[in-house]
Description:
Structural class: alpha+beta
CATH topology of the largest domain: Alpha-D-Glucose-1,6-Bisphosphate, Chain A, domain 4
Order of helices and strands: HEHHEEHEEEEEEEEEEHHHHHHH
CATH architecture of the largest domain: 2-Layer Sandwich
Low-confidence stretches: 1-6, 8-26, 391-406
Mean pLDDT: 87
Number of domains: 2
Amino acid sequence: MRIGFLKTILVVATIFLLTPAWSVQAAAPVKAGVPPAVSKDLITLLTLLDAGGEAGFDSSCIPALMAFIYASKPADVMYTTGESFNSNSAYGEFDVNTHFDEFLKFAFNPDVPSYLLMPASVRHSHWKSIEGKQQPLPKLWQTLPDLKESIAIRGVEFVENTPDLNSGAYFAYDLDKLLILLKHEGRFVLLAISKQTNVSEVGKKGVILGTDDNWTYLYSGQNGINRPGLGWVSSYMYDSYSVAVYAQLEKGRPGVRCGTFKWVNAGWSKINMVREEHIHNGLQRYAKAFKEIIEDPILPGADKIAEIYTQIRSYSLAQLQEKFYGYLNTLEARHQNDDNFPQTWFQEWFKSNRYVKMLKKEDMESLLMVEYMKNTLGREPQIDLGDILGASHLPIWPDNRLAYNN
């Protein structure tokens, strides 16, 4: 009994180690609660997930929320909604300089994996069902010219996130999700409302190699967290909710405001280890990569990225495994002298046949897609992309970006 008690004390004492991928260290901002009317509108949206009623939904049902989204806000303030749903919460906001239809083509495209815009936060994700069927997400940007009434789409999305910066834990879970496309005062708005369907799979050990900005991660498939003396910890995401608002800033001009409210309950032994600061910092982690990618001046068009994705998905499992062995060799050559490189663990587990054969096809496909995006953004990829880029495409790292796709 005493050993179990001591373990509990140890985990609580190391609270900062057990939060999911939202624990980036940063100066603490000033906290402020959102106005009560905004909280009420958020509850209205989250209630739609269970109660329905989204047919004919319009922005007049959530006036305070829309006013909050469009309002200017101090940069040093962290907004929260309190401890709703037995979870702490935070709000994150950023603007992207792109047209609303182009935003939808990249972020909500059935032919482009959504994780590609958030490689610091999500390992991979996909829609398991749309309206109860295995079918692709509609191409929402095609509906914009004739949009008069709101369009609602329900589905279930699978998500596996990236390793936490402190604990190295990563989690897999399903989300019930509702998308509502509508107009507000003549401007397009997409609402994305979600809640976790059940407790996540147990947290597994991961490793971040290099800086987090390089999006290079190892996923072990082994339960626990990657910290000395704490490998035994079984952590979970118990619950999470989010309301994301993607709002066109001006009609006919580039500019989309991305505002996300998120609630998270995660930790060990049903103790919520996630603080508001963790969620806020995680939203910043997500925003930094998203904005960097979608605003890159030589980012290939969505159609080109979809073409690359189709090519990668056509590879056999054996082809993907061969590339992954080469990837592991490159990681070892480039990172073996890093302080956090798991020397023994890497040799005994990551380079074993049983590890590569344990990986799912989608695990390796997502790796290739992220490495392709790294190359596109001028980072040196850690995998051979020659057959993906083609002979006519130069690698664009680090000095020949202007030559790419000319």
